Amino acid sequence: MTSRDRATAGGLGRSGMRSPAAALPLVQAAGAVAGVAAGPPGLTRPAPRRAAPPRHLADLDPAQRRVAVSELGEPVFRAGQLSRHYFARLTRDPVEMTDLPARSRERLSAALLPGLLTAERELSCDSGTTRKTLWRAFDGAYLESVLMRYPDRVTVCVSSQAGCGMACPFCATGQAGLTRNLSAAEIVEQVVAAGRVLATGAVPGGAARVSNVVFMGMGEPLANYRGVICALRRITDPVPDGLGISRRSVTVSTVGLVPAIRRLATEELAVTLAVSLHAPDDELRDELVPVNTRWKVAEVLASAWAYAAATGRRVSIEYALIRDVNDQAWRADMLGTLLAGRLVHVNLIPLNPTPGSRWTASEPEVASQFARRLESHGLPVTVRNTRGRQIDGACGQLAASTHPPVR
Ligand code: SF4
After folding, report:
1. Quick check: CB of 166 below 6 Å from ligand 1?
2. pLDDT at position 400, please?
3. Where are the domains of the chain?
4. What is the dihedral of CA 386, 6, 187, 221, to 10 degrees?
5. What does the pLDDT look like over 307-330, one tens digit per residue?
6. Residue 381 phi/psi, 5° resolution?
7. How far is the CA of 135 from the centre of ligand 1 (A)?
8. Cα–Cα distances in Å, from 377 out to 164, 315, 369?
9. Which tens digit of pLDDT belongs to each residue from 245-262?
10. Is the CB of 14 under 6 A from ligand 1?
């Protein structure tokens, strides 16, 4: 995967504007975040309690599926058949399950493959090779995913939460706040849905499969730790237990929830970790990424290096270039000094501003100079293109322009 995969919905293509003064008090707690401490008192607010999404096959590991099938009065091998339909054939339609007895199909499908997401709106650009979908969940929560086709791969950018509680002031999703965590199956279904579209040949280039998944849509993935870990296993488990996508082709992006990064390093998943840094100094990062008031730059980077050491995977450092805010030459040198000699790649992403934002992207020449200064420190650097600008490509923009946040 290259930095182009991160071009659209997530990470640093996310933009918007909230005044820093308004943003700071609104760091919402990660809610039911396993293993992740909430921010300091007064800086956190729990997500509203909401009904849980219906149980789905993709929420369960293979052993749990066998138990679930057995409880429905079916032989346990039906779990494998059902898994193959969903993860390999990408279908939940009982009519297509011809290897199952007619009397079992409807019952199994209704119980373990409920419809989770309804496409509310779809937009495309880049000659149809970038497609953004606004999804409505069972409870009316909205989320977004983006499919991006390149000559050599297809990347799906998924949301891990409906909304986000991290309150980054340049981000459309951050302005709306957190609605709720997505279930593992709701995350997986975004990938499966993209796979269905690709299989039909509807995306220019012929029929294809999803090759890469990036957790850079709405939400802070590590604030939905349990759901995201479960989804990562379903995405990377071999077919038919999961979708069989290479771990190397999956990226989890975080603003720096240090305990969760350290825990992720122990999961033996070895996916790519992307850290949204945006500033090398705590003074500015406290403003751009409010959770920095809880975990400082040094702590975040230390956890990233520990992740690289544990997994052998190169860490991506994401840096939104914001004109006259964080794109000064001295900040490039400061960042270069922090990262030099590490197993790292830097992605510079010109900010994708939301309408009315007072912050905007750095000038191309400034971005190039910033990249050159980083390279002078021996760092591999990419200035990312930004797919999907015409379709409210930054995460949260489509939801914000279509529906008010669901609270
Ligand atoms: S962590 Fe949340 S608020 Fe910050 S950029 Fe990502 S989606 Fe937006």
Report:
1. yes
2. 53
3. 3-37+116-402, 57-112
4. -110
5. 999 999 999 999 999 999 999 999
6. -135, 140
7. 18
8. 34, 17, 13
9. 999 999 999 999 999 999
10. yes
pLDDT of residue 13: 33
Locate the ligand 1 atom nearest the alpha carbon of residue 218 and give its number: 7
Looking at residue 39, its pLDDT comes to: 35
Is there a contact between 213 and 249 (Cβ–Cβ < 8 Å)? yes
**Residue 166, token pair as written in the block:** 């991290």
Cβ–Cβ contacts within 10 Å for residue 243, how many? 23
Contact (CB, 8 A) for 122 and 398: no
- What is the enclosing helix (H) or strand (E) of 62? helix 62-71
| Contacts with 167 (C-beta within 8 Å, 6 or more apart), sequence order | 18, 23, 24, 26, 27, 28, 174, 177, 290
Active site residue 220: no
What stretches in the chain show pLDDT beneath 50?
Answer: 1-45, 393-395, 403-407
State the catalytic residue, choosing from 157, 171, 230, 395.
Answer: 395
* Per-residue pLDDT at 47: 57
Pocket mutation for ligand 1, best pick of 164, 222, 275, 319 (most atoms within 8 Å of C-beta)? 164
The amino acid at 309? A
Q: Taking the domain 3-37+116-402, which CATH number applies?
A: 3.20.20.70
User: Is the CATH number of domain 57-112 1.10.150?
Assistant: yes
d(CA 166, ligand 1 centre) in Å: 6
